[in-house]
């Protein structure tokens, strides 16, 4: 099969292609397109210039990598009204800075060119701006020498230039031309989606529906009039003797006349409906004009189910419609209009059976509906839901010694009662009453009634919901027993959904039939206005509207009022349901522990002092994530807050810290030594490890003996000394002023290339004198996308930034439940600057204590030989590699003692060593597989204890069911959705550090690819199991698997090339496309072979395709090593 051609260097960004069309090119192609044809005799006298040499003159041997990066990846779009380019090459007489500045000042004087970005954000005092600094670098000066000053001025005036942000190939900054955000791109140049719809979606209200119906009828009538006029013209022309026309039928066919008569009657009825406000009709007509057609893809909103701690004594919240309405005729009719809609112009007052005897009223649809919905309101308000809750949702409880007790039997829970007071929970099991104290003030008592394992199962939650529905919903609206089974099955599908999965109306209606519901099937008997298929359509509309309301406004509030729905840390996206009293008991114990450790309550006077006029942000909110035996607090700093006591609104904490965040990111990039050994991603790990291995091997093939120490900081965020941190940050922010610009990040939507704008901030470096730094750096809050300046830059003083940081650290107010608390120790997790603050804090610790200690160790253990060592820290995870055992032992002893000055100590359960030593109370965390090769886990990687080869750590999946890690999207194209999911599964496993042959051997490179496909195959099986009836055919599944293999190979190639471009490291990939395909097919075959009953046909196809490669795969040692089961023994402990 032919390989797919890789895009050329500097291929045009899709957004720029959408905005500018074919005028968008990279900078090199734009310059070459402006050149005239080569002359026969050039003025350069054969010395070589741009006109006669072209591309060879732009890029010469020996040019810097930054210049090549600029020429190849910078984007440029020539203006549509640009004049002809200069035809004469001129030797530059001025510097690049002077040309840019003079061009900008000239355009500022010309008002017609004042919209150019080069004129924006210009600072008159130092006569500079961001665009001037970016266009005045050494690379642009070299480009000026190559193209001349006339062509450079032409580019600045008439081109929109987008320069790469640093070494990134996905982030661009617009520096010249009309701002991209001001272009009209509402109609993109090309689409990837379906053609537009012919009709707009129906809006709420019956008048819109009727007006649409009238418009459609009017269109038909107008078309008939046009045809009648056309017939008259044809008749006039045919009456002339000189023209012979064939005979045409002047009268419509019978089926056309019947259709026209039907449309005229509907138009007449519709006009009477709109104009005649005093007309009377039956209740069925009222319902037909009121009900809206619910699309099948209407989303059932599940977000109201999660993280809701509020509980009520009644079944529904106080503001719910079933709690507010009264069980009388008026309340029932209001509920009918709420559910099925209301025809505003339809004057339905009462039924014609109001004066008749009771038998005729009982058969009337209007009176029977009133009776049913009055019963619904009355039973919803009187429902004894707590008794049903305790009957159907039994839990695990803890004995007084803290051990998990047996499950409470369902039969004994018939007498289960629970009362949550301030200090205790009472319930009775059988004939014995047991009381558990929930107050944690008494330290001698270890009694805990419930734990994070005391959740209700999905089947129990469904049983409670359906039992409640049977109590409150009348039988004609709930259907017969067949519809009960189907409805309960659909409710179970809704309850067992994972966190980010979606549920649509078509999923609610699956299997439900109108004939199984007495209320909707009686429409045909009760009304004679609509006959034939219209009654069936109306009944189906009513059923879909009723089921949609049942799920949205009954089932969802029942769950949110009685259960606390959340995920668990060890189960990823799987949802767990806790009864509200039990969850309150578990959370209360966690809050008491937090009070004793790092939080204290805040009184009203202290609250007024903290929330003064100068404070710009409010408080954060805590929610708790269940773990195996405790709760993990998570802070939400992204929501604005309102303080009722002060009656004042505050913006979110993270919104106030955005400017400080980008300034700290700029300091991080400019002064990496302030961070010590910090690495922020696997690319940073790759750069440091690549350099260390090159030094240690020193041109040889074998790796000398190395000694590794892995350690983890205990409670890194919660143990930070606040005063120490503020003192450190005051020394880090050295400039008196910082410039912050407001940018817009232009993104592209899926399917349609249409920009969407998100606010983004950029920070620009300054000298202490107030001028721009020589190497101008712009650091954005996002790393990729197109950034366009929006307004003049703002200056932020160091004093204001430090005051904001002090308020955030020392006066961090957290709302837990209904109370506000002040954080005394540590910093807030979840803040946009928390990871940077922790990195600066630990970096200062390394600089003052750890690095001097390691320097002394190197002097005492050197013995005249050069010792190589490497220290890396991924946030709070240390790894130290040295060729000296004494140095590794000294590092271990220093970490054991901890750092009292910084309140920093190591977790004794998370040490890892590749050599033997007496550990004492400390544990050695080392993984050894069935092949006997030892590894040390560190930050999601497995480090080989002997060769320093890197593999991905899959041991963290041992306690997790793979089903809880996936999200299934049910759509119209299941094959495409499955393929996109498989692509996303391969993204995290394609880092350069796993496939570079300078770090890993060829066998390990293939093993890493094989293990990535093993995990992908497990997720593939779980995804197929959740697709039910919409599973693609085996042939289509095989094509998807092969596409995933090719995508993996192309992705690895792309990332290796990006590593060479961005880091200057020549990465080696000794892996072929056919090897990747064979490894992928073999991995899928090994995983799916364990589930033969489901994938029988697909396994046959996989076996046939694997046999095609067996001729050379059997003789390849590296491939046989990769597929050896002993090297991937960790996977057979994963549940899927």
Automatic annotation (TrEMBL):
GO terms for molecular function: metal ion binding; telomerase activity; telomerase RNA binding; telomeric DNA binding. It is found in: Nucleus; Chromosome, Telomere. GO terms for biological process: telomere maintenance via telomerase. Keywords: Chromosome, Magnesium, Metal-binding, Nucleotidyltransferase, Nucleus, RNA-directed DNA polymerase, Telomere, Transferase. Its EC number is 2.7.7.49. One of its GO terms (cellular component) is chromosome, telomeric region. InterPro entries: DNA/RNA_pol_sf (IPR043502), RT_dom (IPR000477), Telomerase_RBD (IPR021891), Telomerase_RT (IPR003545), TERT_C (IPR049139). Belongs to the reverse transcriptase family. Telomerase subfamily. Telomerase is a ribonucleoprotein enzyme essential for the replication of chromosome termini in most eukaryotes. It elongates telomeres. It is a reverse transcriptase that adds simple sequence repeats to chromosome ends by copying a template sequence within the RNA component of the enzyme. This is Telomerase reverse transcriptase. It comes from Carex littledalei. The lineage of its organism: Eukaryota, Viridiplantae, Streptophyta, Embryophyta, Tracheophyta.
